[in-house]
Design goal:
The protein is α/β, with parallel strands linked by helices. It has 15 helices and 15 strands.
């Protein structure tokens, strides 16, 4: 689908995305920050799309055209070659497939195996073959993560691929989901996003996150060229506005909680609000800090617990602030508060889970097993919700 063949309002979904406009692209970090976090406003006017607090916006990215041209050059392809993709009976040009349908970043183990079957003898082949040993699972994972499609085409340059042969082995380019950082009560026709822009280096080459740099570098402001859809979520506010809520959202995990607070304010909810936020430096990385300061002054936020890990010799994270406020946090939970966490799944979410269990032991007199059972019951009652990635 293209912007010229938009579906009718309310018909837009993952299979039929709406071509939206980015109307604001603003850097959130202060000068000198090691991070690049951006605030996007995505205009949904005319789409008929509706969302709730806790939902995500799905975005279909386009790969970097310069990278696609570099890939084509390695095989002396024009880009006009026709290839067949699943569910595409009419075929598509190789250039379009590489731009919009295929993942040109890291590839799968299946792809590597196909490369090695076709490659001639070389030190690079010998090195890669050793990683197929089941005992070297972690080394293989690192190898695959470091190498993008163009690296295989350059390293194993003796292989002359047929376009269809290569395409059949590649992973599909999938949409990225971003927690919506606005409430429909305040922004019914646009979604706000809080996005960490991904730029890094492997093998001495500059790399980039496909979707984050698509939105930041390659989308023209106010141009209807961003395919989007709403992804509904289990993550949401309690129905009773008198219920207290505790929100733990370091870094971009703050996004849904900005939305929660907007909605709680607009609906004049009487329940108390407690926010835990963390990042590297208070001066440069307190995302939406002015907004949250104003919410504290107005009385909307009863408590804000901040953890800036690099502002002192010893690193401090949100779970440390939870433990420091353990007695009060326990009292809120005993009073029926809902507990939310959003952000990094690999470490932060587990550390927060462990801290909550420790608080139950320290201030609720529970054993380790009882604390785990308590957390399980909270999840069952939807009083402990996680949106982690």
């Amino acid at each position: 689908m293209t912007p010229d063949t938009q579906a009718s309002p309310c018909e837009f979904d993952k299979d039929n995305p709406f071509f939206a406009k980015i109307v604001e692209n603003r850097l959130l970090n202060g000068e000198g920050s090691a991070k690049e976090t951006r605030h996007f406003i995505v205009d949904l006017e005319g789409s008929g799309l509706e969302y709730s607090c806790g939902d995500s916006l799905g975005v279909y990215p386009t790969n970097n055209p310069e990278q696609v041209e570099a890939i084509l050059k390695t095989q002396d392809w024009t880009g006009d070659e026709s290839v067949q993709l699943p569910k595409d009976d009419s075929g598509i040009s190789l250039r379009d497939a590489l731009l919009k349908r295929l993942a040109i970043g890291d590839q799968s183990k299946k792809f590597l195996q196909a490369v090695l079957e076709r490659a001639g003898d070389s030190p690079a082949k010998a090195e890669a073959e050793t990683l197929l040993d089941p005992a070297k699972r972690q080394e293989l994972k690192w190898y695959l993560e470091e190498r993008h499609l163009i690296d295989y085409l350059e390293i194993f340059s003796d292989i002359q691929w047929q376009p269809q042969e290569l395409v059949a082995l590649m992973k599909r380019l999938v949409p990225r989901l971003y927690s919506i950082a606005s409430s429909p009560t305040r922004s019914p026709n646009a979604t706000h996003l809080t996005v960490a822009i991904v730029r890094y280096e492997t093998l001495g080459k500059a790399r980039e996150g496909v979707c984050t740099t698509f939105m930041t570098d390659r989308v023209e402001i106010n141009a209807p060229e961003v395919p989007v859809f709403i992804a509904s979520s289990h993550f949401g506010l309690p129905e009773d506005g008198a219920t207290d809520v505790i929100m733990v959202g370091p870094g971009t995990g703050i996004a849904p909680f900005r939305a929660f607070l907007q909605e709680r304010e607009d609906r004049e909810c009487s329940g108390r609000n407690w926010l835990f936020f963390g990042d590297q430096h208070a001066k440069t990385d307190y995302l939406y800090g002015e907004e949250f300061d104003a919410m504290q002054e107005s009385g909307l936020l009863q408590k804000v617990s901040l953890a800036f890990s690099r502002d002192q010799a010893e690193k401090v994270y949100v779970q440390h602030r939870m433990l420091e406020n353990g007695k009060e946090l326990w009292d809120w939970m005993q009073g029926g508060a809902y507990f939310y966490v959003c952000g990094d799944a690999s470490r932060m979410a587990k550390d927060v889970d462990d801290a909550l269990a420790q608080i139950a032991q320290d201030h609720g007199g529970m054993s380790e097993a009882e604390a785990k059972s308590w957390l399980k019951q909270l999840r069952k009652e939807k009083r402990y919700q996680r949106d982690v990635y």
